[in-house]
Design brief:
By secondary structure, this protein is an all-alpha fold. The protein contains 9 helices and 2 strands, in the order H-H-H-H-H-H-E-H-H-H-E. GO terms for molecular function: ER retention sequence binding.
Amino acid sequence: MNIFRLTGDMLHLLAILILLYRIRRSRNCIGLSCKTQEMYLLVFCIRYLDLFMYFISLYNTGMKVFFISATAFTIYLMRYKKPYCTTYDALGDDFPHFKVLLPAAFVITLLINTGYQPWEFVWSYSLWLESIAFIPQIVMLNKIRLIENITSHYVATLGLYRFFYILNWFYRFYIDDFFCWTQILSGILQTGLYVDFLYYYFKSIGEGKQIIELPM
């Protein structure tokens, strides 16, 4: 494992912890999309189908279990656990994620994948689904426009995690002569969805602002 992969993993881990901290501390889910979390849970369950089939390392298994369980717990808080669920804006979180994102990822996977063997196709599908899973959250952020500090840290950390994964893939190309177009293109698409937000995030930090205001 290289430094880019490790940094990406730690940022991903940190993003989930920040989200849980934000929900528990504020005791509300205002401005958060449960539909994005549902997409992430699908991504992890699909990608880690081999969780109990192959053992690579304790680190690998531990991270997989954490991503699945922490995301499921987040959904539980937002959907069912009071007082958090009473503040979840189900009407505002109205992006048709199952109708749009699942088939969209499938179509892209048909065009760009690592192979048509069942496991190769499923793994590729999980990459493309993850690349667009954040769209419901983006829609909600653009509706509220004013984003408080902790939520902004969560979004920025999530965006930076995939950026470091892209660096990891380029590093592996130069060091290990390994290259995968599916990983690269899905990573670029996913990171691209965060670019606008990251610009205003770092701009606000530079100006010492506690609230990020997105343009209309």
